């Protein structure tokens, strides 16, 4: 359900910069909290839940700056929430503000060092900054904390490939595929078809770079079978399909275009 954003009063103070991040002045925070209480009479926990939903809605709409401000407001009300720091870090990362993202991930882990997903997120940040060895270490920690974390295994495999450690990359992808199949066979929380397709695509690319063209083509075909043509994450699936087709055409040559409606058996 999309919840309406609470309007700010016309004379609300302007946003200010604090520690390099867009933040809302403390007096402004207090003012919004007071308005929420006056308008709805909500408890502190209900206000936090509503603000968090608004932040997610803003992020989905692409308004990352507003979403960051809302998470900053949530953090001011609950500075011990590792989840809020992690979520704000993700938004900073999406904006390309890697140092700010890293600071938020570090704080989240200081508050709760057992959060596997935060290690995965921080590893992604390290990888984007070119610190690949640090990224590998954080992926290892995420996997140690949650061996079924398919995304961490996928991301670690990509990073190993960037380091030209191709055999280790393939091992990561194979384990991720095995865990995804196990989860889908036994768990109600299924691994998405988009994620499964991504795994085959990245393993295929690694075989491609190793010169094992037969395995590469087989995995590219598997990826196209898995990647959905409709659904909630259609944009991501379309980007992955386009990437796989480009890799296949690079391998096979431009005279053999890749179609959407082919069928294959394995």
Describe the structure in brief:
With about 270 residues, this protein is mostly helical. About 70% of the residues lie in helices and about 0% in strands. Strand 1 (about 15-20) and strand 2 (about 20-25) form a beta hairpin.
Write the layout of secondary structure elements.
Blueprint: E1 16-18, E2 21-23, H1 26-40, H2 44-60, H3 64-77, H4 82-94, H5 98-111, H6 116-128, H7 132-145, H8 150-162, H9 166-186, H10 193-210, H11 213-226, H12 234-252
Antiparallel strand pairs: 1-2
Helix pairs in contact: 2-3, 3-4, 4-5, 5-6, 6-7, 6-8, 7-8, 8-9, 8-10, 9-10, 10-11, 10-12, 11-12
CATH class of the domain at 18-113: Mainly Alpha
Low-pLDDT stretches: 1-25, 261-266
* Strand order in the largest sheet: 1-2
Mean pLDDT over the full residue set: 83
The CATH fourth-level homologous superfamily of the domain at 18-113? Tetratricopeptide repeat domain
- The overall strand count is 2
In percent, how much strand structure appears in the residues?
A: under 5%
Question: Top keywords for this entry?
Answer:
globular, single chain, 12 helices, two-stranded antiparallel sheet, disordered N terminus, 2% strand, 266 residues, mainly alpha, Serine Threonine Protein Phosphatase 5, Tetratricopeptide repeat
């Amino acid at each position: 359900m999309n919840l309406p954003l609470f309007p700010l009063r016309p004379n609300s103070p302007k946003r200010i910069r604090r520690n390099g991040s867009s933040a809302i002045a403390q007096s402004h925070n207090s003012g919004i909290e007071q308005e929420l209480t006056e308008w709805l009479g909500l408890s502190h926990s209900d206000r936090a839940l509503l603000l968090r939903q608004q932040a997610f809605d803003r992020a989905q709409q692409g308004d990352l700056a507003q979403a960051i401000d809302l998470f900053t407001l949530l953090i001011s009300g609950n500075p011990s929430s590792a989840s809020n720091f992690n979520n704000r870090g993700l938004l900073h990362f999406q904006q390309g503000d890697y140092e700010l993202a890293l600071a938020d991930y570090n704080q989240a882990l200081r508050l709760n060092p057992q959060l596997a997903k935060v290690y995965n997120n921080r590893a992604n940040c390290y990888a984007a900054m070119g610190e690949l060895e640090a990224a590998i270490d954080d992926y290892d920690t995420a996997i140690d904390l949650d061996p079924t974390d398919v995304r961490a295994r996928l991301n670690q495999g990509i990073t190993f490939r960037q380091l030209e450690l191709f055999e280790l990359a393939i091992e990561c992808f194979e384990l991720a595929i095995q865990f995804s199949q196990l989860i889908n066979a036994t768990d109600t929380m299924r691994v998405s078809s988009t994620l499964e397709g991504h795994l085959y695509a990245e393993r295929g690319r690694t075989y491609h770079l190793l010169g094992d063209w037969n395995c590469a083509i087989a995995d590219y075909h598997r990826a196209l079978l898995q990647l959905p043509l409709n659904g909630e994450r259609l944009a991501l699936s379309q980007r992955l399909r386009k990437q796989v087709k480009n890799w296949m055409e690079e391998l096979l040559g431009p005279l053999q275009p890749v179609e959407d409606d082919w069928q294959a058996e394995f």
